[in-house]
Design goal:
This protein is of the alpha+beta class. It contains six helices and eight strands; from the N terminus they run E-H-E-H-E-E-H-E-H-E-H-E-E-H. The chain has two domains: 6-104, BMC (bacterial microcompartment) domain (Alpha-Beta Plaits); 109-201, 2-Layer Sandwich (Alpha-Beta Plaits).
Length: 206
Amino acid sequence: MADEFSLRAYCYLDRMQPQYAAFVGTVTQGDLPVEGMASLYVEMAPGNWVFRVVDVAVKATDAKPGAQIVERQFGMFEIHSASQSDVLRAGEMVLAELGLEVTSRVRPEIASVQVITNVNPYQAQLLNRFTRGSMLVAGETMLVLECAPAAYINLAANEAEKAAAVSLMHVTSVGVFGRLWMSGSEADVLAARDAAVGAIASVEGT
């Protein structure tokens, strides 16, 4: 493995939650996932390595590719399957191709976390113009979370949805930072925040 290569993220989701899976379906350009599937996000630099490792991943098992993105700094891909073992096996094949262990990934960090209570109706309307998920209703509480590497925001969103009855507004998992917006009652948003932050903190890496 070349010295300049970086395994920025190796992010496994054991079971896609209903809102999260539905949101991914609105933005993916590949095979569409559904609720209950397992998923793996892998982010790397240089980005052009994506083409090689996606080929390995999809040949190894029946896991399907949902995304393959190469930008200026990083490359990222996602695969999913109804079979957790297929996704895990595909991930093992990717790591073997790269000559790395899962612990070689970059350990994620929270860049920003904000809880905004009693959202003003005008702010809600502005934010709703940029969402592809649930609409933010005036008076609700909103969670804004950012992390790096960006792909780990998917884990944060999925685990937050498991933990509380929140509405998923938006997820951005490409670029330097991943971003998540959720809304709901103050108590539910706080529970979702704790789950999301805890999920990010639990990831081991370099």
